[in-house]
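Hi support team,

I'm opening this ticket because the web form for multi-chain structure prediction keeps timing out on my end. I have pasted the exact lines I submitted so you can reproduce it. The total is 666 residues across two entries, so I didn't expect it to be a heavy job. Is there a limit I'm missing, or should I split the entries? Thanks in advance, R.K.
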Amino acid sequence: MKKIALANMNALYEAIAKDMNLYVPIDNKASVNYAEWKQGDTPVFDKMTVRSAKDAFFPQCENMSTFSRDDDNRIIIDKIKLTEKDFVVMGIRACDVKAVAVLDKVFLSEPVDTFYKARRDHSILVSLSCSRPEETCFCSTFGIDPAEPKGDVAMYIVGDYAYFNACTDKGEKFLNGVSGLLENANDTDVDAAKAATREIMTKLPLHDVTTDGWGAGVLEEMFNRPEWEELSSSCIGCGTCTYVCPTCQCYDIRDYNGSNGVTRYRCWDSCMKSDFTMMAHGNNRTTQLQRFRQRFMHKLVYSPTNNDGEFSCVGCGRCVAKCPVSMNIVKVIKTMGGKK
Amino acid sequence: MQGLEKKIKDRAIELLESGKVDGIIGWEKGQFIYDPTPAVFTKETGLDNFCYNNFCGANLSKYLVGKITSDKKYAVLLKPCDTYSMNQLITEHRVNRDNIYIIGVGCEGHLDVEKIKRNGISGITGVSVDGENVNVGTIYGESTIAKSDVLLGKCEVCRGNAHKISDELIGEELQTPEASDRFEMVNKLEAMTAEERFAFWKGELSRCIRCNACRNACPACTCRVCVFDNGRSGIDSKANASEFEEQMFHIIRAFHVSARCTDCGECSRVCPENIPLHLLNRKYVKDINEFYGEYQAGEEADQRNPLVNFGDKDIDPTVISDKEGN
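Hello R.K., no limit was hit. The queue was backed up. Here is the completed structure from your submission:
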């Protein structure tokens, strides 16, 4: 384990940003979000970001190719260059690290998503051990230990120091690159802080949320539950929950027809929206009940059914905090879970 | 507030039991104190989970739009400011007044949990209002903040405790918060140069994630299919493909609801990125007041708004060029 005095963190940011892009949580006075670190920025590590770290690998909107005509009127297809520069995302909580694993499973299995893969290949995840979980947190429901995050390097902020532990070879190499700024430390230096976080977790209001009743193979019994009607009646059909979610991965591909040719881009889509998966024959989910059910069935039933029991919710609590009408996955889990 | 909650609950049970209404649109308890969910209560569901506390800021009037073809009768709980929206919906024939029973509920201003959290408070386990102060209990300790600092944006400019439409009132004697000048920020924006103003909106709107929460919560946005969701419109979009687009969505929306927007503040309340969207609408409210005389959308049902009520004293459209884009 290595450490650096918090007072010297700026030197660390500078050293990283010299060769790589560095993304950290920044408070823009209205909300906290990941942004590229610039000289003078002070990252905010004690607040949850509104948007998750998935933006770094799967941005809300990205161009995929452009189409234009040459002088002979032939169509020219230009592919968009893939990410080539290494970048560091610092301050990712354990829940979001797990979320990246969920996304990896989707985008890195065949057929591999080349845009996503390029970003993942060039990324270094510096995770952050939670010290002040919020009331909306329920990562422990999904077996995540917020005190011991994974990623390439795990970071712990304790007292006046930030501690670092490499978790992968990539992480080891990264720490070696900035070793001049780091001092040696003992693994045990952060033990008390980890224990304190785990203790807090047991006191959180959502600590007793369980996935009982949900999981692989319960499609038939959950799909037709009458509770969907009441739960979905509050939903206003916006995409907030899906866009702040670190594991929501649906996107649409569209062509932008501009005066200088066509740009093909993809952008996040949301199963909560009325035009989601719109096809020539129309939409296969025509009511908000169906759309609402899709989201939670995906997270809590389809995903574990297809991925060895792995849920695609990580309990980060963003949708709990941000839903305009406070209708969220915790209410869904609790309303139908555990009772058959 | 607890006394009022009980009064409302008792009356709601009475209405359901007597068969006067088939459902009550109100607020249901959440996981915490600050997250009540709009919900429909019926004889079957009962009212055990009903709540009316300091976090019932949501405007329930829009939930009636989806019930317009229903043959059931619903009672809806509306705070004074929500009743403007109800009048506007009635004016636009977007709800079926005959099947709605409006219960005006008293209000002493609702709180914004985002503002509480912005004060560095997390791990919230309880919130109670004690006169001018708000006491917040958290797993990390207790905090006290001034109520005026954590009121919802819409409550800072409260238009008073008068319900503009109702079939009965409960707790109407509650005192609503004292209002500040609602055009203060609009005045500031108007005083800026065009470049400064552009920079202001670019900074705010660049955070937009196009979740459409503002549109979907807006009681004035009642199109069956929004032009931005309609594949045949040619301008449908699911994301901000450019800086231009993120401005276009919001400005078009603000124009579309101008003179119909009651300034209920739902757009800014629901924005996950805390963008002050209401300022766009409020600018149009102010312009309309200046151009056509004081006008409040939803003041009463069936009034004609100045933009559709042509008169010989209407302002000359050249005012736009005279103002040089300001």
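A quick check on our side: Chain B touches chain A at residues 28, 30-32, 35-40, 45, 58, 62, 122-125, 138-140, 204, 207, 209-213, 215-217, 225, 229-231, 236, 238-241, 269-270, 272-275 (CB under 8 Å). Let us know if the file doesn't open in your viewer.
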